[in-house]
Amino acid sequence: MKRLFRFLIKTLLWFLALSVFWVLLYKFVPVPYTPLMAIRYFEADEPHNSLHDWVLIEEISKEMQLAVICSEDQNFLKHNGFDYDAIKKAYKGNKQGKHLKGASTISQQTVKNVFLWPDRSWLRKGFELYFTFLIENFWSKERILEVYLNSIEMGNGVFGVEAASEFWFNKDAKHLTRYEAASIAAILPNPRKYSAAPRTNYIEGRKTWIVKQMRNYGTFEIRKAVSK
């Protein structure tokens, strides 16, 4: 039992050390590849290279930054990685059998895409909570948003906003207009099913809603917060 206990302690300490090092490394280094990219590669009927080009946040349209905040996590600039009000609302909705939007924040989605795998197990959820705590404490909000926009799936085999901008609109991410940014943000719930261009009536409706939220939210708060 003592040997087992020492082994478990050593394993835990190694995990803590390596996970903190991993998070600190990605605070400065672009994320070259993610577990989801590997999974999508092997899932494909005909394996193909993912479209993925890393760009600095300064090279990403402010409209795109605002669009994902308004569509995915309007409290991103205020919370510490977890939106407790949204969690409570989702929990109550699930108990009532309602299908509500998940309470996953941009920080949690970043962790899921960069460090973990797409699964609904309690084990993965536990890792998600741990890594979310780490990036919220070691990274700035600007860095979280930068990694998020460069890593998430934005089309079938398309990862990151630069690749998505080229794929959907044949332009660099820094040149995306408000409506184009909202169109990309509109497909994020299921980027392999939906199309940003041309859009279905459903995606057009989501785009219109996102643009309205962007007008209400404004650009001042995002510029002030991500520059901290």
The unreliable regions are none
Q: Can you identify the CATH superfamily?
A: Biosynthetic peptidoglycan transglycosylase-like
| Distance separating the two termini | 49 Å
Number of structural domains:
1
Measured as a percent range, the helix fraction is: 55-70%
Mean pLDDT across every amino acid position: 88
Instruction: Determine the oligomeric state from the structure.
Output: single chain
Number of helices: 11
Structural class: mainly alpha
**CATH architecture title:** Orthogonal Bundle
> What is the strand arrangement across the widest sheet?
1-3-2
The CATH class name reads Mainly Alpha
Number of strands: 3
- Would you give the CATH topology? Penicillin binding protein transpeptidase fold
